């Protein structure tokens, strides 16, 4: 019997890594994020080969993606994405910690019993300690409350976030899937506490535009975030893969939809696929793939808010090829009025905002 004794060469990041990336200021802060960030929700659990995970992370960092987004429950199993990323950090990126923005979150279901869900101080504090243990870190750069919790007073969640920053376990804090009014209330409270919220993480894409819609006070989430000094990082800008060519010729066996994960086959309705096909044609006319156009659209200039409304598009990728294709979106972020109008004509809400219930679950406290 022979054994392969080849030891893989240690990872050495590309020296050119900061040359092709655009970095955008996050709200009213001194922090910049890459225009495209990488999320580890799917594709980084124990169900995916470690070698592929490593290749994707290496390539991302080689191309200037300095921001990696995690949460306590990413996997499967829950927690494994943090453990796997922690291993890659320890083995390959340890000496580059100060070049990285690593985020985690708590809010959705994590462990059994009453303390593994929601927005209580008990849950947020213990969950962050567990995340740091799995990541092998002393601190994360950004810690989020992952979803509004109707059963916890907003103040309790916000005091916990403030105290997390004071403890040094997170440098900045943010919120995810909060509606416009709750965002404004939370931002004002935290500003008074001297611990401003850095960022909001909402879902946003060509076919899921809830952040542009007026809320109860007529202000959209994008307006509320900008007015209150929060940056925005848009998650699922590819609508989990719908806004790519992935499903135009059926459902590939290795896709998220086939795996029965968060993109149900019901979301791939005839109507949605016809819309995607039309959007694909518009992208071709621009000389982009649909994935590239979808990312450029999220990052486009937005009227009075300017081009920094969305600081970063937070994508997922199951291969290096997908990541490379997505990063090439940055070659053309400009849209003519006619192109924007054609996209608006072709697009409608695809019914894929599976986080809407969490947003609706808690509205501005004064109105409760
Ligand atoms: N705050 C929250 O509540 C929340 C919720 C959801 C997500 N997030 C964050 O946002 C991140 C991104 O979410 P997401 O993964 O849904 O984003 P997405 O970018 O909309 O979808 C990523 C998926 O699209 C497919 N894809 C990506 N690039 C492609 C390409 N060039 N061509 C063809 N297919 C392509 C891949 O599907 P296959 O795997 O099928 O190849 C990939 O897994 C997450 O990892 C997480 O960090 C946050």
TrEMBL record:
<dbReference type="InterPro" id="IPR005399">
    <property type="entry name" value="K_chnl_volt-dep_bsu_KCNAB-rel"/>
</dbReference>
<keyword id="KW-0521">NADP</keyword>
<dbReference type="InterPro" id="IPR023210">
    <property type="entry name" value="NADP_OxRdtase_dom"/>
</dbReference>
<comment type="similarity">
    <text>Belongs to the shaker potassium channel beta subunit family.</text>
</comment>
<dbReference type="Pfam" id="PF00248">
    <property type="entry name" value="Aldo_ket_red"/>
</dbReference>
<protein>
    <submittedName>
        <fullName>L-glyceraldehyde 3-phosphate reductase</fullName>
        <ecNumber>1.1.1.-</ecNumber>
    </submittedName>
</protein>
<feature type="domain" description="NADP-dependent oxidoreductase">
    <location>
        <begin position="36"/>
        <end position="346"/>
    </location>
</feature>
<keyword id="KW-0560">Oxidoreductase</keyword>
<dbReference type="GO" id="GO:0051596">
    <property type="term" value="P:methylglyoxal catabolic process"/>
</dbReference>
<dbReference type="GO" id="GO:0016491">
    <property type="term" value="F:oxidoreductase activity"/>
</dbReference>
<dbReference type="InterPro" id="IPR036812">
    <property type="entry name" value="NAD(P)_OxRdtase_dom_sf"/>
</dbReference>
């Amino acid at each position: 019997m022979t054994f392969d004794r080849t030891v893989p060469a240690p990872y050495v990041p590309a020296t050119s890594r900061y040359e092709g990336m655009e970095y955008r200021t996050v709200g009213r802060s001194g922090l910049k994020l890459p225009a495209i960030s990488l999320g580890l929700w799917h594709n980084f659990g124990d169900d995916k080969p470690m070698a592929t995970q490593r290749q994707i992370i290496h390539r991302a960092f080689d191309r200037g993606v300095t921001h990696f987004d995690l949460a306590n429950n990413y996997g499967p199993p829950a927690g494994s994405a943090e453990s796997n990323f922690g291993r890659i950090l320890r083995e390959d990126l340890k000496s580059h910690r100060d070049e990285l923005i690593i985020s985690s979150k708590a809010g959705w279901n994590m462990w059994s019993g009453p303390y593994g869900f929601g927005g209580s101080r008990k849950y947020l504090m213990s969950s962050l300690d567990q995340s740091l243990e799995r990541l092998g870190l002393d601190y994360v750069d950004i810690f989020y409350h992952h979803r509004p919790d109707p059963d916890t007073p907003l103040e309790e969640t916000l005091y916990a976030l403030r105290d997390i920053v004071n403890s040094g376990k997170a440098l900045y804090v943010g919120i995810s899937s909060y509606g416009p009014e709750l965002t404004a209330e939370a931002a004002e409270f935290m500003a008074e506490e001297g611990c401003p919220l850095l960022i909001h993480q909402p879902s946003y894409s060509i076919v899921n535009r809830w952040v542009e819609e007026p809320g109860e006070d007529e202000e959209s989430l994008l307006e509320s975030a900008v007015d209150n000094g929060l940056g925005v990082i848009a998650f699922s800008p590819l609508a989990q893969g719908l806004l790519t060519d992935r499903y135009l010729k059926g459902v590939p066996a290795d896709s998220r939809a086939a795996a029965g994960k968060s993109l149900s086959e019901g979301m791939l309705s005839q109507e949605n696929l016809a819309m995607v096909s039309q959007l694909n044609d518009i992208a071709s006319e621009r000389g982009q793939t649909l994935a590239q156009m979808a990312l450029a659209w999220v990052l486009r200039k937005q009227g009075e808010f300017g081009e920094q409304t969305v600081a970063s598009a937070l994508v997922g990728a199951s291969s290096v090829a997908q990541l490379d294709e997505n990063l090439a979106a940055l070659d053309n972020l400009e849209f003519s009025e006619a192109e924007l109008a054609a996209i608006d004509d072709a697009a409608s809400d695809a019914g894929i905002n599976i986080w809407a219930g969490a947003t609706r679950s808690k509205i501005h406290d004064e109105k409760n």
